[in-house]
């Protein structure tokens, strides 16, 4: 990848001698740091880390979680340009033995604006209720149950868009997905209780009638 913010990779002595980390974790930190210097975002995927470090996908998951739990990196999800992206950043400041390139005031302002924009987009995508029936119907079509849009919106209109315990709905789409699961569970239960031709045994019925 060509988006690195350094011209060469160096391992700080503090990281090199850190006994809490294995070598996969140390190299993973260095790899993430090479993309996220000066407060920049690192978008590298698990696939990239797996190929670059020559370890399995499960090893990437395990070691990435380990360095996150130990406080070496930050990991968060943000919506950027309409897509959910994972952002990684090294938290610890190691001494690399040279002065890193300073970002300009204009570049910092651009990054700060990007952060604010992504926060606003993320917030706007999570709403307590649909704007109107059409928006609700569009999402229920996406869920594959368009016939449930009307019952859903009627039910929560009468509850004031509150859940059973009285808590206000924060994300109506998440509530819609729960509605779908409950409908499916109800249908499955009805099918199990109903008559099934394949389970009918006329011999057993005859014995029941004649013998009790």
Keywords:
single chain, 212 residues, mainly alpha, two-stranded antiparallel sheet, 53% helix, flat
Separation of termini? Answer: 78 Å
Major sheet details: 2 strands, antiparallel
Rg (CA only): 27 Å
Low-confidence stretches: 97-104
Number of helices: 9
- The SSE string, one letter per element, is HHHHEEHHHHH
Large-scale geometry = flat
Mean pLDDT: 78
> What structural category characterises the helix and strand content?
mainly alpha
Overall number of strands: 2
Fraction in helix: 40-55%
Read across the widest sheet, the strand sequence of neighbours is 1-2
Beta-strand content bin: 5-15%
Explain what this protein looks like in three dimensions:
The chain is mainly α and 212 residues long. The chain has helices at residues 13-16, 23-35, 46-53, 57-69, 105-125, 133-143, 149-158, 172-193, 202-211, and strands at residues 73-80, 83-90. Helix content is 53%, strand content 8%. The chain has a two-stranded antiparallel ribbon with strand order 1-2. Residues 97-104 have low confidence and may be disordered.
